[in-house]
Predict the 3D structure of the following.
Amino acid sequence: MSTPVIAIDGVTKAFGEREVLTGIDLEIAEHEAVAVIGASGSGKSTLLRCVDLLIEIDDGDIRLDGEVVTDPAADPVSVRRRLGFVFQAYNLFPHLNVIDNVTLGITRAHGLGREEAREAARTMLARFGLEGREQESPSNLSGGQQQRVAIARAFATRPRAMLLDEITSALDPELVGEVLRAVRDLKEEGVTMLIATHEMGFAREVADRVGFLHEGRLAELGPPEQVLEHPAEPSTQRFLRRLLEAGRA
Amino acid sequence: MEAELEGEERSGSPLSRGRDRRAERAAAKRRHNRRGFAIAALSTVVVIGGLAALVLTSSGWPAVRETFFDTTIFKESFPEVAKGFWLDIRVFMVVEVAVLALGLLVALIRTSSAPAMFPLRLLAVLYTDVFRGIPTILLVYLVGFGVPALTQADASGGGNPLSWLPTEPVVLGAIALTLSYGAYVSEVYRAGLRSVHPGQRDAALAIGLTERQAMRHVVIPQAVRNVGPPLLNDFIALQKDVALIAIIGVSGEAFRIAQIQASTDFNYTPLLCAALLYLAVTIPLARLLDRWDRGRVR
């Protein structure tokens, strides 16, 4: 078996007294998409932020292409340059127009020339249906468009893996579809992805494997049919039943 | 629906009802506006007219008019005071640039978290506390007379290691103003830096920027944008306080010239010249500030 792109090995993280992640083990192979589901506060976002080294873990290790990146001596900047992160609240830079949002990283962090970067950004934006919007301010775009800019910004650096943190949770229901289409497009290209979501339909469709996070532990992990249709764990069953009652599954 | 039907019955003509109500409302609004305008005009005349009458009929008014509003003296002294005001403007512009740079530097030091920066952070806190706490006029005195004293040659004829310090009053005045306003402006910047959502820094790091690049390209530009109006407010205050450098003997400053002329003629009209010149700068700045604030709310 080849080296997984991301290997999470016994990762534990506490905020003060409260342990948010407890001994998480999860490997994501090349071209694989893994969706992590779970109630809000179950630690999904924390897990993704740990992988991108936006927060420090307390115990365990995370490896990127076999290299331990959570070593205190490792350079977090070079690690983040190999990963793409999309936030729930988009976090576009409001003082920059759409194209500069995309070029900032590829020029400053990846050393591309200005013209080269603009060309790459234009191509990337067009790919996610944003041609003609390059000069606009992010605030003039709909939530769905902003999130697609954020996806383009993260993917423009051709990362080894994309980390998608509840990217449809802040969107109006009618705008969710266009963002999910963008992710489906990434999946077709074989992009390695770690996705935190509570869109069950989406997890079922895009993910190769689904993990259920419950009170900081990975309670269940397997193919979507198994975890979502025939969950073995009582906690997973309860969670899915509640979603079903709320009409969200 | 029921209410609508009732309305139709009352108005008599069901077909034209919608249009009538619209015209009625427009007419009522016009009446209301006219009434408001009339009240505003009347109360303005009463208040301003009353105040003017009170001042102009007072027994002291002729003397005040003579000593403060003498047109001949105004015409005579205006060119000199205006020439002095040009120095004020130049000092203001130089100090403003220095204040913006110093304020940002201090704010960045105070918001940094690196352990190696601890002594600098301590100094920055001390600086803002002390220099915001001292009245600007006192600071102008302390720097204006204290620094030249430091540069005095040793009585025994030995060299003074501080002899390179400036002694020019205008330079010292500018330094004092920079120190005083730098402390205020650093706090304004600090509020601006705090106002940038933490998600912005996260996003900057996530696209692979270093901490320094994230600050430079993402956090600082937004912080400065957020504090534009309060910064401009401090500019206006600084523009007025430039007059303080007159007290350490900066010759050729507008307020100083006006003071000298006033004391030679025993007439205060030159001071009015200076006041009008300050207003000519501060009022446009204040209007600019208002517009900026309105634009941000929209």
